[in-house]
């Protein structure tokens, strides 16, 4: 993996939320690299910090109460965290675009979809109104909306959820961003529409050559679509792997638990196994490895209970944060 | 030739349609339009000067040569406003929707500047005339002939001590007041005062309220805390007494009253907009707008404001009614516009004459005018609220 192949790299990102009950460490020590033209999936349960990571890239963490306390986010050679708000505005929408989870509320109800797409195009690409309008129609056609000439002048309330999400995709790709952040783009849609939207993203990725940061809790999507996967647990990355090797050989006990709890064809007669216990409260994280209270291997291990394992590369392209992962331990650990 | 795309109904159009589903709303709106027509055409409806008169064999047009600068600016504003409405209708058919809002903004800017420049130049260039010629006396004495008068042939400033405190009759349909002025004439001219007080005062208070509320609501935190305390202090002071106190220190002019009502009643609007912006700030489409890199100005006023304007719009109609009411009350108490400028509240206060007689026609007719105006504005406000949020009505 050569260095100029990398579009975005996050280094030791830490985000805290200062709430009335105390400091919630929403993201701790997250490092990852997204390659050009590839899909990177960020997987985890609700509240594990995957959305906060994505919002940090866009610098959209609500401040206060949130604050990015450490780390760097290098995008095209610049640290996004050191940019001024004005410089950041030029990147948002133009270089990095985002799709949100809820298509029903992500479009402004008082403007036609065309007007909303045109505003972004006019802003970033300095095109004339007619040209931007033609572009908007073209974008709607590309995201597979039938009769775009008509649809472009309709209001969001005249469209179904799937169609609105297509419009969101059209708006996000209208300036041909280098990186598209898709924050659970299909969670609110039904299954057939989900597949259509994801196919659409794949297809557009090939056409435009953009990278996608796909945030999801659906491992099924990850297996099909992602090139690389990071599994997050309790505001840290538990494991990073190519999606194939993650599914064939999960290294972290949390990933193993997740994969075991997936339904499989032909094994439907038994109850699905689950991971015991619940996700820890970000205000009161356990000491040591945050997964140890629920971990089948480490729950009684003194070291797991006291020392937090950092993310280490155990073999090329394979990072994990578990004392028991093969090849993890290094001299001087004990 | 490609089939023309069919533009969907905008939010405004939906509200408009919903509003007109109720007959009462339509009637109230027609009444308000009627009031406007009366106010604009007041000099032609009630005037002691004739439209045309022949004096010594030559035709004169006293009404037109005696129009004041404010009459001219009112006509100008009315004509520009009407043109604006016609242009908007025409735009709907002719202009491509994609550039319609740009065209609309350009037209509004031009209209406002035309009105402003026109008003200022009217006040500079139209001479103040005081034509005290009594044309009726001239006709009676045979000096002039062929006079065509307005439907109510009396001036609002003209005194006629011979016909003081007359009850309604054939000569004076609604009677006369203590100096012999015709009540109907003063009512017609008074509608200008009431409507302009309502609109200007509410315009001032809405603009102040929207700007302050938007800033408090969008930024939140410390700004919001400090701002809200100021708003609360403003709210704790009884507005009416504050207005009376302030009015006592300034000359009794219409402009002063409008400005004072405006700058003391913005707190409601600020609180509405602040609450709406708090809600909208967390909405996905606002976050999506931010994530598209749109500038703050566009996010605040293009994306958030139109979604949060509804309560302010409804409040504005109630506010107009309230301002008319406050102006009447001030005039009733003697703090309002100075006579002979007619005001409904001031006419009410003449109901008990200096001789102690109760002149019922001076109380009833201005009272009814105030009552119906305030009532229709309140009903329109309520209709608007229901149209904007039909769920409210169904819940009843």
Q: In words, what does this structure look like?
A:
The complex is a heterodimer of chains A (334) and B (396). In chain A, 31% of the residues lie in helices and 24% in strands. Chain A has 334 residues and is an alpha/beta fold. Chain B is mainly alpha-helical and 396 residues long. Chain B is 68% helix and 3% strand. Chain B is built from 18 helices and 3 strands. Chain B is globular and about 80 Å long. The termini of chain B are far apart. The model of chain B has no long low-confidence stretch (mean pLDDT 83). Chains A and B meet through helix 2, helix 3 and helix 4 of A and helix 13 and helix 14 of B.
Q: What structural keywords apply?
A:
A: 334 residues; alpha/beta; 4-stranded antiparallel sheet; 11 helices; B: mainly alpha; 3-stranded antiparallel sheet
Short characterization:
Chain A is an alpha/beta fold and 334 residues long.
Strand order of the largest sheet of chain B: 2-1-3
Mean pLDDT of chain A: 84
Distance between the termini of chain A: 32 Å
Give the overall average pLDDT of chain B: 83
Radius of gyration of chain B: 25 Å
Main β-sheet of chain A, in a few words?
A: 8 strands, mixed
Sequence stretches where pLDDT stays below 50 over 5 or more residues of chain A:
none
Amount of beta strand of chain A = 15-25%
- Global shape of chain A: globular
